[in-house]
Design a protein that fits this description.
The complex is a heterodimer of chains A (about 600) and B (about 250).
Chain A lengths: L7 H15 L7 H24 L5 E4 L14 E4 L1 H20 L10 H18 L3 H19 L8 H29 L4 H10 L4 H17 L7 H9 L2 H25 L5 H27 L4 H21 L3 H31 L16 H15 L4 H16 L5 H25 L24 H16 L2 H16 L3 H5 L22 H17 L6 H21 L4 H21 L1
Antiparallel strand pairs in A: 1-2
Helix pairs in contact in A: 1-2, 1-4, 2-3, 2-4, 3-4, 3-10, 3-13, 3-17, 4-5, 5-6, 5-10, 6-7, 6-8, 6-9, 6-22, 8-10, 8-22, 9-12, 10-12, 10-13, 11-12, 11-16, 11-22, 12-13, 12-15, 12-16, 13-14, 13-15, 13-17, 13-18, 14-16, 14-17, 15-18, 16-20
Chain B lengths: L2 H24 L10 H14 L4 H9 L1 H26 L20 H23 L8 H27 L2 H24 L22 H26 L11
Helix pairs in contact in B: 2-3, 3-4, 4-7, 4-8, 5-6, 6-8, 7-8
The chains are: A mainly alpha (about 600), B mainly alpha (about 250).
Amino acid sequence: MIGLLPPLPVAGPLAVAGLLLMLSKALPRPLPDVIALLTALGVVLVCIVLAGHAAPQPLVYWFGGWAPDAGRVLGIGFVIDQAGAAIAAFIGLLFAATLVFAWGYYDEVHAHFHVLMLVFMAGMIGFCLTHDLFNMFVWFEVMSVAAFAVTGYALRSSALEGALNFTVVNSIGSYLILGGIGLIYAEAGALDFSALAQGVARAPDSPVTAAAFALVMSGFLIKAAQVPFQFWLADAHAVAPSPVSVIFSGAMVALGVFGAARLSFAVFAPAAPVMRVLHTLLLGMGAASAVLGGVMALMQRHVKRLLAFSTISHVGVMVVGLALPDPAGLSGLFVYLVGHGLVKGALFMVAGILLARCSGIDEVGLRGRGRGIWPAGVAMAAGGLLLAGLPFGLMDEGTRLIGDAAQRVGNIWVVPAITAGAICTGAAVLRVTGRVFLGLGPVPGEEERSPTEREREKSDRPLWLMLLPTALLLLLALGGAEAAGAFAGQAAAAFMHPDTAALLGPGAAVPPSPPVAPAPDPPTTALPWLATGLALAIAAFELTRRRLPGRLVRGFDWVTRPPLDVLRTLHSGRVGDYVAWLAVGVALFALAFAFG
Amino acid sequence: MTRRARLLLCVLAAACLLPACLHVALHMPPFGAHPLPYGEAINALATRQRHVTNMVSAVNFDYRGLDTLGEEFMLLGAVTGTAVLLRGSRGEQLTARPGRVGNRPVAPRSDAVVLICRALAALTVLFGVYVVLHAMTTPGGGFQGGAIIAAATALIFLGEGYRGWRRIMRTGLLDAAEGGGAALYALCGFAAMAAGWPFLHNFLPLGTPRDVFSGGLMQIENAGVGFAVAGGFAVLFVEFLEETRAERDGDGA
């Protein structure tokens, strides 16, 4: 019975999407919503069952029955491990919550929105489960194409630029990945991960392998919006409808990191130079993104842009988790990915509630206008505290695991970086909460000079319908941290050392699999409370500027303004600039390989 | 950033990347001596295992059929997205009036153009169907044939003018062809599962090699692709050409 399940979470939504499109004119109003929601829930269910059966051995499924013959792989396989299945279940859940949140929002385009969302979901899940490099690229592209389409829904001409920046930068990322696939195929002569790993192991020092890694990683880091590839994200979020932003920030961006992790361990692990670059360059990029995203978030007044920058910061934490050579870092990445997705999804839903109920998204303009919808304010405050590092729930567990990993491998310097990023993003969200829902902060600070937009979304849904999924996501983010940590530890061990020989069948070479040291339970520290307190203090400082001594405020602004101005100038919104930075990012890989 | 700064940044990046590219290029497998293990294996096996002589189709629809499923829905997503984007700014109502540019006169179509277009449109559809059907034996298949069939609709536009073309092109029908074709591909996979095989397993009789109807399940998948591509490309033509129709009051808001 379990053997029948692996294709369902991908092929099921696709078949439903095709049928929905076929019948789009004939289906009456609520049916597309109902069908799409049921499909997403079915996917969650199937993926949970798969995750339960993915240990101790991953589930292997060869499409078309093309199992490898004497180590030669002709077909495409799904190898479903605990990490892949659990994250696929999380993606399905996020889609289900989003479909509830957007209930009826897209009526005038018939079922087209639901078709796109189902295709989007299937692409993401296929990306998590596949065991074939080109197939992974296909799902990556399915995901990208659907994302481009749903970003531009009801596009206003003023917003065209943001959507175009997103499309151009991400398309370049896809080209880079495709180029990398070409190189690694030329070198290793295979596409299946296990077969590729054997090819890489035959020539671990080959420059071609290194170049393939650089190109593929650049593509995934563009999707993950990491420094210096991060520019497109804020522009895309500022224009995407709020239900779409939930998916973007909650899952799509983080999947870039997941893809990078998958390839690093399943394909490139035998190449020592590549792993060295992973442990140095990506560590730096992640830490830089964590700090930069946090600072930029504090400077914004457009709430969706603010949340977008906070996503850059938190995905930076995930990249740090990937780059640390310790299993705890990877398990921290998995827990953090889910925890952050739930919290950030909820926060974007609050932004959507503001757009629908208060007809605006500008923090300064909305001051005090959220009083009537205080439950949304509670949700936003909870989200802000969790982002800052409040020691409850999944995000905290992930942060703790990554911090422990950093301590063990002697990279203790990244802990202040990721903590600073978390503090800044938490403070930014708390500042918005105080201003919009409590009417505090009549005098805005640095955020006043940031770009904003007059924007609104249809207010055709009851408040409770929008609050319900928001609350659900937050509650899930709060619960079960211990169990999730233990599960992720197990999942990370299997993820890091895939059993290549067993997958390729008899006749395949057996690479040695190093033993996995169990992660010891470290002592809890006061750091999370300190971070939460600092975030509250920064938010309080920003909101009480008028009451503070003028000299203090002016002195603070005098010190911070010049560097912040430089940052603001860099985020120019011009796609040419972004592409120039993209080239710099790829060049960083070249430098890291040359001198690393 | 100023133009100058941007250029400087690009030059710096290029200064790092060019030596790296050269280094990689020198370590590539030598020119012409590529090992092509996958292609060689398929060439040796496909005719025996799947009774088809078009290896590309064997790879697309059988060995790596899952990729094609993804690509099918990538196309569907792209077309649906385009339709949503364009209709979003234009509205969905149709109009019988074609658009005009300024005072430019609309020349009446000559009978020769109408006749040639009618004849060619029919022949083009026929040729498209031929290309779709011969997917298993000669180069071509659902993707290529579907695109050719869709191209015939442009000939209808040329020959019949906007009004006649708009009467023939029903978007509901085209959506149905596109969605139904793509769904058919996915349902082929489920049919294999219902018959007790893995998803997309080729469980139908494979026929004789070099026969038009060889290939078993691949034939049905190929037909699904043909429908989806023809419908999808035709939807694109409709949406792009609708952009040229006359604007009514309140358009372009």
